[in-house]
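Per your request, structure below.
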């Protein structure tokens, strides 16, 4: 049975999103509005990302293992986006991005994978991963559209201690 987590998404919008830093100077109308879903009471869909499935390969002798996360995303407000996979490898409460994958406007299911050594954190701090959906990359700022985090199952393999 796949491990599931909570889904986070952008709040409903009554107007198109404000331009990001890279959109400034392109003029009005350069940010595409959300699709109209007439008759449903909502006028815009949200950008979302959801964890569909998680698989882990058996760890090698050093504890390294490949983690593959299948995600379903909907990118409706921007023509291009980035899906990112990260883990709390260096801090129990902060995530480090380990892989990014460019995506196009629309909906799809995609696998993100990384080879990592899980970390055993003290006292009620599980080893977690996150997946985020951001608007197209920006040199100094990213526009986060949706994110979801989930704890990985404990395994009997050796894990780095902090």
């Amino acid at each position: 049975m796949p491990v599931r987590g909570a889904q986070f998404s952008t709040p409903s919008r009554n107007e198109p999103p404000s331009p990001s830093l890279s959109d400034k100077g392109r003029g009005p109308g350069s940010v595409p509005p959300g699709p109209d879903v007439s008759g449903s009471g909502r006028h815009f869909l949200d950008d979302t990302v959801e964890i569909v499935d998680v698989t882990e390969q058996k760890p090698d002798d050093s504890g390294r293992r490949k983690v593959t996360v299948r995600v379903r995303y909907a990118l409706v407000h921007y023509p291009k986006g980035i899906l990112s996979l990260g883990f709390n490898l260096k801090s129990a409460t902060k995530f480090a991005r380990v892989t990014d994958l460019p995506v196009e406007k629309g909906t799809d299911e995609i696998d993100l994978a990384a080879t990592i050594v899980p970390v055993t954190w003290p006292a009620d701090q599980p080893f977690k991963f996150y997946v985020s959906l951001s608007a197209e990359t920006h040199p100094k700022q990213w526009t986060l559209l949706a994110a979801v985090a989930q704890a990985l199952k404990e395994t009997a393999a050796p894990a780095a201690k902090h």
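The mean pLDDT is 75.

Regards,
D.
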